Amino acid sequence: TGPGGTSAAATVTLTVATPALAITQTSLPAGQQDVAYSVSLTASGGTAPYTFAVTGGALPSGLALATNGTLAGTPTANGSFSVTITASDSSTGDGPSRVSQTFSLQIALPAPPVVRDTSVAVTQTVTNNQPATIDLSTLITGTVTDVTVATPPQHGTVVIQRTGTSFTGVSIANPLQPGAVGLERSAAVATPTLPLGATVAAPRFVAVYTPTPGYQGPDRFTFTAVGPGGSSTFATVDITVKGTAPVAANLVTTTDQNQPVTVDISSGAVGGPFTQAAIVSVSPADSATATLIADGTASARTYRLQIQPSPRFSGTTVVTYTIGNTFGMSAAATVTVTVKGRPDPSADPVVRGLIDAQDTATRDFARAQIENFGRRNEQLHGGGGSTGNNPIGITLGSSDGGTFRRPGRFDGIAPETALKMEHANEVMGAEGLRVSSTGTLQPGASPTGVTGAMGLRTPTGSRSGMATGSATSASTAAAVGAVADESGDTGPRKIGSIAIWSGGAISVGTRDATTRRTKLSISSSGLSAGADLKLSDDLTVGAGGGGGEERTRVGTADAGHLTADTWVGAAYGSFRPTPGAFIDGVLGYGDLSFNTRRAALGGSLAVGHRNGSMLFGSLSAGIDQSTGRLSYSLYGRAEYLNAKLRAYAETGAGVYSLTFDPRTLESLTSVAGGRATLHLGAFAPRARFEWRHEFNQASPQLLDYADLGGPSQYSITNNDWLRDEVQFEIGLGINPGDGWTTGIDLGGRGGPGSRSMTVRVSATKKF
């Protein structure tokens, strides 16, 4: 519109151009690994506000771009990183406008690690010198790939341990447990960089420090941390080793009565090396004695406690002790010892059985010798028998006292024939039989000469070797007949003649078990031999010796065994106060030997040897009579035994071996009996019966365990000596007339709880 008016309508076209948007920064500043990085990006030429984003490439780990353009963080990697960043404005219409720019971000290597000094206190205790641990990771700042020890400690060792690729921040203090090495943080140590529980992507390094045993005082070592950027400076760890006293252990053990036990108190204690130990007390005070035994060197001792229980103590004894090192003594600890008691040996059935077996063997030995010599005395009745029950017999003597002569053939004839000849001689008168100087039977003159053997008369002055004397009476003949049956004798011996004989028997028997003693199985034998001298028609004396052995099995399965032996010497004699009566005596002395064996507790075998001696004797009196073919004798006898058994001790069973005190066995026995023989030509059956009663009793056997001193405390009393016993014997004598006379006798005896069988065999040869 103008003065001239208004023009025609016209069209106008308006073009709004896109703003020239640009990122202000053309490059990014360089950074360093593990160092905080921050830069703010800006834009221009557009409509604010602007937003930023990474649209290409990648930022190093640890960095992030905020939408407001702030690029910040702590890179954990190094190198060159290409990244495209796009900025957008806030324009509308065809907007928003965008612009992109590629940057090259350089992240340099991290700086070398930084380490700090620290001081720690190590409590030196003693569980096998357990080490202390120091977490060095808490003392290091920066990236760490390794830690090395620069200067080792002077009084210990240190080892660096890598425990992982990451670590969690912890205190360097270890809780102090009894018997373990611990650490305490020093007040000079700064607070760790990382809070407890924070996890960092880095390995954890722990220093393991072990002080020299027994050392207390200061110590130190230095270390460096190594990272991608190099090594740190040296850092020092100061250590104070604080010593503590040992910790003693309470120990328990067992032992047998009176047996020492040794306990190593060092091995159970902690805190070595040890330098001292002490015994505090023993309870009960009289239950044991304790002794310390030290081994090793003065600076490194080991200690053993030897505990010796009192000889008769059983139960529990407690020994209190302490043990020390260079830092001090431990608190009191105890060794508790259970002392196992041993059973009462006097209640052991096998032990009682062995003692009873020794008693029995002693009595059997004495009885066997009394019987052997007593039977020889029986053979001397009536005529002073020549050889008796013996394998070989000879008669020495002559009328002139110096000539040895073989007995005549008349000496070997049957006793019945001899008796008949004697009576025939009395009837026949001058025509009677006589004995020639050669010892043969011949018709003779009137019996004016001196009587010979069996009452047969010989010419006066005959050198036949036969004893002189009056005519044989009927009673004498009867007695002679009885003797001839058993001995093969032909008549009275010559005064001054000597006869040699031997005899013996074997016995097998048992003694029943009692409530306190096991069963005994016994085999016994006794042999005797001697020589006797006829001093007169009424008295013959002699001397001899003998031996015996006895084997006894005690209990079952050979729980115990006794072997006994004896050798004896004896004097004996027979006196005829009147025809048909006799008084006999025996007195002997011998030694005793016992070997014992028994199964003891624990499977061991206890063996022992005992010696002793015995004095024994007997005195008997009775009558000898005959009626027709029967001859018999009634008698009474007193027997005495006094034995001394020496002390002995077993070996081989350890703590279960026993010792036995000396002991005296004394017995007085009365015997009443009789014997009879029936003469049937060449055969003569015979029998014997005896009843005996023992009056005395053995003294108790005192015993104890062999390792205990002092008087024995246990006792075994044998009550079986006071008892009655009967004996019966039957036999057969055989005289075939060829110079041999044999015989066999079977006998048995028994009493309360005991029984035995005896076999006697005899053989006589005439020369």
Descriptive report:
By secondary structure, this protein is mainly beta. It has four domains: 22-108, Immunoglobulin-like, CATH 2.60.40.10; 114-243, Immunoglobulin-like; 251-340, Immunoglobulin-like, CATH 2.60.40.10; 350-402 and 473-765, Autotransporter beta-domain (Lipocalin, Beta Barrel), CATH 2.40.128.130. It is 8% helix and 49% strand. It has four helices and 49 strands. It has a twelve-stranded antiparallel barrel with strand order 34-35-36-37-38-39-40-43-44-47-48-49. Strands 11, 14, 17, 20, 21 and 22 form a six-stranded mixed β-sheet that branches. Strands 23, 25, 28, 29 and 30 form a five-stranded mixed β-sheet that branches. It is rod-shaped.
Give a brief description.
This protein has 767 residues and is mostly beta strands. The chain has four domains: 22-108, Immunoglobulins (Immunoglobulin-like, Sandwich); 114-243, Immunoglobulin-like (Sandwich); 251-340, Immunoglobulin-like (Sandwich), CATH 2.60.40; 350-402 and 473-765, Beta Barrel (Lipocalin).
Structural Rg: 61 Å
Question: Per CATH, which architecture of the largest domain?
Answer: Beta Barrel
Helical residue percent band = under 10%
User: What summary fits the major beta sheet?
Assistant: 12 strands, antiparallel, barrel
Walk me through the topology.
Layout lengths: L21 E2 L7 E2 L4 E4 L2 E2 L6 E7 L5 E3 L4 E4 L5 E10 L9 E11 L5 E2 L2 E7 L7 E4 L4 E2 L4 E6 L4 E7 L4 E2 L13 E4 L13 E2 L4 E7 L5 E11 L2 E2 L3 E9 L7 E6 L4 E4 H4 L7 E8 L4 E10 L2 E10 L5 E11 L2 E2 L3 E8 L8 H31 L15 E2 L18 H14 L4 E3 L5 E3 L30 H14 L10 E14 L8 E17 L2 E16 L5 E16 L5 E19 L5 E23 L2 E16 L2 E2 L8 E3 L2 E16 L4 E12 L6 E5 L8 E3 L7 E11 L5 E12 L2 E12 L2
Parallel strand pairs: 2-9, 11-22, 23-30
Antiparallel strand pairs: 1-4, 3-7, 5-8, 6-7, 8-9, 10-13, 11-17, 12-19, 14-20, 15-19, 16-18, 20-21, 20-22, 24-27, 25-28, 26-27, 28-29, 28-30, 31-34, 32-33, 34-35, 34-49, 35-36, 36-37, 37-38, 38-39, 39-40, 40-43, 41-42, 42-45, 43-44, 44-47, 45-46, 47-48, 48-49
